[in-house]
Design a protein that fits this description.
The structure is a single chain. The protein is built from 6 helices and 21 strands. By secondary structure, the chain is an alpha/beta fold. Helix 1 runs parallel beside helix 2, helix 1 runs parallel beside helix 6 and helix 4 runs parallel beside helix 5. The two termini are 29 Å apart.
Length: 308
């Protein structure tokens, strides 16, 4: 393996939190590397149009936000490395980061690998994500004014987001694999009292239909086996998130759901390691919030390095 390359700050994950952190640390003249195993931008790169990010009154394409952030980080000297981090360990008062092809050292590390929407895993889902399939009501709800949509799930998130979507949609049909909701009583009552919400019980989606956009879903009743097609303009999936924390689950303290625990200053249980964005327990799942945490983590990392 090649000689270890040294950086002052290593950031794992090039979503909104990671790229913002890189902009701040690089502008502070701290040598910075950011590792990304897929494409820059994280979940926002999968969003067609972003309308709630400040400064873009006409909206901006999700991939454009990602590319602009990456270009801005590079402008200030960030080295973007498209490799998956395989391990992270303490070493000589700092940290060693290993990928499949190299070894790197850092005085501070920012964990910003985010969380992944839990997918239903049916044909058409991945192909139509951003084209009628969504995992974020506040991001995409406004695109479905006076449209008929379906919501998949039966927990608190599904009910909260389903109720929110009635502000825009003419009808929201909740598809749930059981015959009762898992949501809290107050959310159950609110959803059932909403005239725009209907329920389809004991049913799962087997396929999302459409070529260039969502046109419908194929449904199957889990008790009778009966299948049918159901026309809809959009599919909102709220069956949970999975934090991308497998890399650090034995390195820093995580909660029962796998999210990284951090203090108000975003310090994890390991001094010098910070967590920002959706990988952090309690994070708000919005781009603008992730960017704010990226800034805060960068300033905390800078302070840590200055006091070594």
């Amino acid at each position: 393996m090649a000689e270890t390359k040294k950086f002052q700050v290593v950031i794992i994950g090039a979503g909104g939190a990671g790229l913002t952190a890189a902009i701040y640390t690089s502008r502070a003249k701290l040598s910075t590397a950011i590792f990304e195993k897929l494409t820059p931008g994280g979940q926002i790169a999968l969003t067609d149009l972003v309308e709630n990010y400040p400064g873009f009154p006409e909206g901006i394409l999700g991939p454009d936000v990602s590319q602009r952030m990456e270009a801005q980080a590079k402008r200030y000297g960030t080295e973007v490395i498209y490799e998956e981090v395989k391990s992270i360990a303490k070493q000589n008062g700092g940290f060693q980061i290993t990928t499949g092809s190299g070894s790197y050292s850092a005085a501070a590390v920012i964990l910003a690998s985010g969380a992944s929407f839990r997918m239903v895993g049916v044909p058409g889902e991945r192909e139509l994500t951003g084209k009628g399939v969504s995992y974020c009501a506040t991001c995409d709800g406004a695109f479905f004014k006076e449209k008929e949509i379906v919501v998949v799930g039966g927990g608190d998130s599904a009910m909260q987001e389903g109720i929110f979507l009635t502000r825009f949609a003419s009808k929201v049909t909740v598809i749930h694999r059981r015959d009762s909701l898992r949501a809290s009583p107050i959310l159950k009552d609110r959803a059932k009292a909403n005239e725009k919400i209907e329920f389809v019980w004991d049913t799962v989606i087997e396929k999302i239909l459409g070529e260039k956009k969502v046109e419908g879903v194929s449904l199957r009743n889990v008790k009778t086996g009966e299948t049918r097609e159901f026309r809809t303009d959009g599919v909102f999936i709220f069956i949970g998130h999975d934090p991308n924390s497998a890399l650090v689950k034995e390195f820093v303290e995580i909660d029962e759901s796998g999210y990284v625990k951090a203090t108000d200053s975003l310090q994890t249980s390991v001094p010098g390691v910070f967590a920002a964005g959706e990988i952090r327990a309690g994070a708000v799942k919005q781009l603008v919030a992730a960017c704010g945490e990226g800034c805060e983590a960068a300033l905390a990392a800078q302070h840590h390095i200055e006091n070594l």
